[in-house]
Queue: 3 jobs
Job 1
Amino acid sequence: MRIAFTAFAEDSIIRGELVLDGDRLSDLIPQEGPFEIEHVTLEALDDGRTVSADAATIARSDLIAITGSGPRGNKARRVRTRPHPARAQAGPYEIVGYVHAPPSAHPFSGVLRRGVLPITSAVIRYRVGGQPIEQEHDALLVNPERIDWLKAATDGELGVGKTLELTYDIDPHAKDLTGEPVL
């Protein structure tokens, strides 16, 4: 199966197509050896110049994060987790989103032992040619070896409010069942 591929390296953004042989992208990433990307475009972070090629071989260790795309994998292999707001710095990228951990585990225990750290409802911030860029992704697969720091975040840092405000219109002909006097 061919899937869209976007990866974030130390000095560039890599876009193209990847032939996915397994159940999901997060299973492919921690495997050893390079992988082949087709219809590749590289965008330099320093000045925004682009280079295109029919194909390129990419070393996994060169990548900081990859956008999660493609199938989610076998439902039977999924484990119940709890989302924890997190903030990370990895090279020139700031990433905020949710790290998932079992309900009874510390959210950041074992991060470095993982082959890949999925961060969901993720926002990645970086600069191209000095201009700030902010992108939202359903999931980012982050290389734990490339994380400079990882810490708990607040809902405010993720842009999530504590309360949900619903707007509604009051029907003047509706019966008031609150028991409060109507003025």
Note: Strands lie at 2-9, 12-19, 35-44, 50-58, 63-67, 82-90, 93-101, 117-128, 131-142, 149-152.
Job 2
Amino acid sequence: MVRLARKSLWTSGQGAGDVGWAEVHRIAGEIALMSPEPDAAKAEAYLERALAVARKQQAKSSELRAAISVARLWRDQGKPQQAREVLAPVYGWFTEGFDTRDLKEAKALLDALSSSPDAPLTSKDAT
């Protein structure tokens, strides 16, 4: 998987520089989920590695994309609280660029996760 994702990055001309490795792992995770026999455990391992690499490099855009992928996976596995917990802090770091595709996608996912039946009550909900 990683080999295929790495080849994809090199072919696209992006290379696999420091920031690129987080994307390589994220793409490998997405591929693991889209394969004819999806492997959620393998995908989760790749996606968590993508998060770790992006965090180590302080690459917030890569971290956001990885967090979106992890949050989607966990949402689909019935873990909306964990999905919110991984995505919300990364999304909250951004102060501009909210018209970009990644931030729009993150916001939509957070909104959907917040409206899930097992979303915890906030002080706003209690009033």
Note: The chain has seven helices and no strands.
Job 3
Amino acid sequence: MAAVLFGMPAQVGAEELIVDNTAPFVQVTGPWVSTTLTPGFSGADYLFRPASAGDATVFWPFPTTSTPGRYEVFARWTSGPNRATNALYWVSSATGTTSITQNQQLNGGTWQSLGSFDFRPGQSEGVTLSDRSDGVVVADAIRWVGPGAQAAAPVPAPTATPPPATDPNGTWTVSLQPVDLHAGPEARTDVLSKIPQFSYLQVLSYADDWAYVYNPRARGTAYVPSALLGPSDPPPAWVTAPPPAAVASVEAMARSVGNAQIAFYPVDDKFAYVGRLDNNLPILVHDRVQAADGSTWYRVDQGYLAAASVRLPRTPDRLLAGRWIDADLSEPAMLTAYDGDRIVLSTLAIKGTIANQTPTGTFTIQRRVADETMDSGTLGIPADGPGGYHLEHVLFTQYFSADGASIHYNYWSSNFGYSGSHGCLGLDRADSEFLWNWASIGTPVVIHA
């Protein structure tokens, strides 16, 4: 039996432990993104990160409640054509640190062995995954199989049956309240997903008090208590239409804009929306598609987003060598960190107002202050007067102009992408801290409208 560590560690007789990425003691560094799009993962979700310079990592520590000894270590991921072929794992054990690469385009949804190692609890030993790779890296779960456990072999993911076409004789219904969709006609079976009130479901058959239904949102089948369903007319044609073909492949990181509503099909209809993203969340854009009404949408891991809800970095007029920063002030304003021609980070930034505009041109980082107080009195403006300010503990400030324009953590506003500063570029904490560790004095900063 395996102890699955989604929360605090649990001790079992056989030394077989699974540590999911959601376990509270797993250490996530850098802007990894949570998703559930590709099946085959362990636990509630998995994390992903596009290829980068190795600044973002996930560390699964060897559980402190475990018995010291020799364990075989397994990793799990979800596969896809955009995945890394050289995902880099480091296994830190009693004998040192060993690097192992895995091709995440293959063997998704199974446990893949990284080798056998000697581990000691409480010694900062475990497994680290880096984002230094040639494609998208997936961080899901790590499995330790030790003394007393059955010899471990790769465990295949459940085989999915092809989703059925809708039954022309099936009865269309809607959910009368938010509903859990189950793998079988019993409440104790696995919950496959949760759907909101008034979601379309087509009843294919019944098993006692349960309905076997086709769920057009997931294009698959599940079971739901029949008492939670109400009658409905057939849904609009788009509900059962196949996904639209891609107009262009994108495969790039972007940021969500405003109250970004996620749709399971690219149509502006309240029944299509399945969730929302807050402003300035990192998203991986796969394709650009065109809706039936001619509007542009983007396919992301969570579904589809209208073009107005997505900000992709625009190609700069020129590229610089080494590490440099591009700030595009066109709203929503976006700051992008490059290593040569490769994007390392892109994020929305608060920019200057009309009265206090962010300067444009080419600059370099001149000085850096980790934690400071910003006071308008240094500019001749009383802190308690019109346009004045006094802000303590402004973190990760990197000045790039002689008159005080800088990149820094902007904790007093979340209006990322739009005007609101006295000329600085304000970022959220995670991104400002990343740039603080990534950039240095002399790093070029190119700002343009």
Note: Residues 323-448 form a domain with the L,D-transpeptidase catalytic domain-like fold (CATH 2.40.440.10).
